[in-house]
Automatic annotation (TrEMBL):
<dbReference type="InterPro" id="IPR038218">
    <property type="entry name" value="YuzD-like_sp"/>
</dbReference>
<dbReference type="InterPro" id="IPR009190">
    <property type="entry name" value="DUF1462"/>
</dbReference>
<dbReference type="InterPro" id="IPR036249">
    <property type="entry name" value="Thioredoxin-like_sf"/>
</dbReference>
<dbReference type="Pfam" id="PF07315">
    <property type="entry name" value="DUF1462"/>
</dbReference>
<protein>
    <submittedName>
        <fullName>Disulfide oxidoreductase YuzD</fullName>
    </submittedName>
</protein>
Length: 109
């Protein structure tokens, strides 16, 4: 029986957000988030993707959202669980964990 995948998308840039001085970079957050989720959840149903807002793929939704981040001066990294934005700027694990729970991702035994 196939289980539904959950996709975590992190939008960020090499340069740290001007309003997030002292916070880890977007790539560091991407790696940290994978490790934190793998310690608590059955991570085989979770997929990750990192989108550089300065070099987004040509795919429609990623390119459009990256443009929006830049135009609206949004704080990054921005984290989505499936199509729901769960963090902007410095992420909180509790909020991300709640989104994973809502999507039925199982805790480790």
């Amino acid at each position: 029986m196939g289980r539904k995948k959950v996709t975590i998308t992190i939008y960020g840039a090499e340069q740290i957000c001007a309003s997030c001085v002292g916070a880890p970079g977007s790539k560091d957050t991407y790696e940290w988030l994978q490790a934190a989720i793998a310690r608590k959840y059955n991570a085989d149903v979770v997929e990750y993707e990192y989108i550089d807002i300065n070099k987004p793929p040509e795919a429609g939704k990623h390119k459009q959202f990256a443009k929006r981040v830049l135009e609206e001066d949004m704080f990054f990294p921005i984290i989505f669980v499936n199509d729901e934005m769960v963090a902007e700027g410095i992420p909180r694990l509790k909020t991300i964990y709640q989104a994973l729970d809502q999507h039925g991702v199982k805790l480790l035994a």
